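Lecture notes, unit on protein representations.

Consider one protein chain, 105 amino acids long.
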Amino acid sequence: MAFLKYSLIRLALFAPLFVLFTFLQLGVLMSVICAALIAFALSYLFFQKQRDEAAAALHHRFSGKAKPLRSAGEVQDANAEDALLDANPDITISNDAAKDHKSRG
């Protein structure tokens, strides 16, 4: 969430600057470059707390310590499997079938 917040702050800085530079007829490419540089400088100078939070969130996500993200379909499948196992406690799951299939193939 911190990364999204910081990205939205930078976009909120970039968009009006881009419109301003385009209105001043700098050209599209030059407007993009100038707006990006100024938005970067302003966010670097004045939004250090948000930048640090965004960096920490990214570091946590890619460090391997974060819980894996699962799609809605994967969550539904896992819930269905859990419900089946709870309803049938005498059934056990083993990966022997996959091992047998690999050894035969």
